[in-house]
Every structure is written in structure tokens, then in C-alpha cells.
Amino acid sequence: MLGSIIGDIIGSTYEFNNAGRYDFDPFPPGSDFTDDTVLTVAVADAILHERPFGEVIHEYASGYPNRGYGGRFRNWIHMEVPRPYNSFGNGSAMRVSPAGWAFDTLEKTTEEARKTAECTHNHPEGIKGAESIAAAIYLARTGSSKIEIKNFLESRFHYNLHRALAEIKLYYRFDETCQRTVPEAITCFLESENYEDAIRKAIWLGGDSDTLACITGGIAEAYYRKMPEEWIGNALRILPDKMSQIIRDFDKFIR
Predict the structure, then answer these.
(1) pTM of the full predicted structure?
(2) What is the 3-state secondary structure (H, E, C) of the chain?
(3) pLDDT in tens, 174-199
(4) Under CATH, domain 2-254 is a member of which superfamily?
(5) Domain boundaries, the chain
(6) For the segment 42-62, what is each residue's pLDDT rounded down to a tens digit?
């Protein structure tokens, strides 16, 4: 899941100020973790300690306020009895990467991915976004080729993965929905040559940069298994100790 977190941090300064360049500075002043990282770590924590996803997500969101949460999610945080609100925002896909690593079968992976989403994002598109990214990570880490991953995601989830990034770039704009973030993030991965290239393509594309890079980074980490050491060090230095410890514990758990 560290690949998702690095993508989030690198995208944090470009979300509303996208450079539109491939050769951008990955860690300019002000780089920080956002809600994407907070909730990704929450999902990992829930898996490690076998607790309900909604309960742990709520605790983390309350404990790390003002990290860029969407308006409806902020309302959910303050509900006396939190309940899902039929969202199809890309938040369900951004936080799901730990589920892609933690389970032994594709069926179990998508089942748990659904649970990570439906506590808030119980719209079919929100659930689909989480399930598809968890499935992509599972397939990538278990040795599937890019064409096998692409074919599975198209047949199972009906995303259009035939567009080239150069074509998407012509009209792509900021969009917080799963429908307009998940297929673009998958395409950034499919056209990449390594982890760094995947993240740079995601930021270059534009849109909701931190979330796009977070989702792309989760799949790219699982497929390439190698990330720039400098990027890893920079990201870990930014994170609170509690989050770093969960990342270490989760790494031991999946290995």
C-alpha cells in the first residue's frame, strides 16, 4: 500500500495546481499526506486488527481532520450514527489498496473491497471502483500480465480501457467520481514502464491528481515491486509515527 501513499503525497501539491508536465518536482515544498493516505492506512489497520472497516475509517478521519475530505464525507464523520450516503466518489477506490494485498483469492479480495466501500460509498459505481482496483492489485501481485489485467477489468467491470493517455489528456478535467478517475488511473498503469513512470503519467494527466496518483501507484507497486528509494524515504519522513508503524506491521502481515 506504500505505493498508493507515495502517489498521494506526490500528487498533494498538484491537485489544484497541476503542472501539466512529465518532469515535475515530485516533492516540492508543501508536499504532505491527504485524506487518501489517512483512509488507506485506516483500511490496513482494520485488516490487521480484524475490526469493521467503517468503524476504523471513522476513527482515523476524526483523528486526522482537515486532510481534504469531501463535503459529504465530512458530514459522515460528524453523524451520530454514521451510515452510507450512496456516494460514487473516488474515495472508495483511493483507500482500497490494502485489500488488494491481504487476501488469498480474487473472490475474497473483491468481497473485502466491497466492505471497505459500502460503509460510505454504497452506490454501485462506488463499490465497483473499490472492487476493480483491489482486483487489479491482486492480479498484479500474483503474476498476471498487463493484458490479462486489462482484459479482466474490462470484462468484469466494463471500464473502457482502450483509450490512450494522449487521447484522454485532450479533454480530461478535474473529476472526483469513480467513473472518471478509476479507468484513467488504470490506463496510467497500463501505459507505464515502471513505478516512477506510472506516477509521472498520472500527475501529467491532470484531474484529481493526488487520488489519481494514489490509485495508479497502488497497482504499479504490486506489478513492478520496486519504487525509487528516495521517494520511499521522503514519504516516510512526512508520515506520523502511528501511520509508519501500521505500514511496517502490514508489510510483515502480507509477507
Answers:
(1) 0.97
(2) CHHHHHHHHHHCCCCCCCCCCCCCCCCCCCCCCCHHHHHHHHHHHHHHHCCCHHHHHHHHHHHCCCCCCCHHHHHHHCCCCCCCCCCCECHHHHCCHHHHHHCCCHHHHHHHHHHHHHCCCCCHHHHHHHHHHHHHHHHHHCCCCHHHHHHHHHHHHCCCCCCCHHHHHCCCCCCCECCCCHHHHHHHHHCCCCHHHHHHHHHHHCCCHHHHHHHHHHHHHHHHCCCCHHHHHHHHHHCCHHHHHHHHHHHHHHC
(3) 999 999 999 999 999 999 999 999 99
(4) ADP-ribosylation/Crystallin J1 (1.10.4080.10)
(5) 2-254
(6) 999 999 999 999 999 999 999
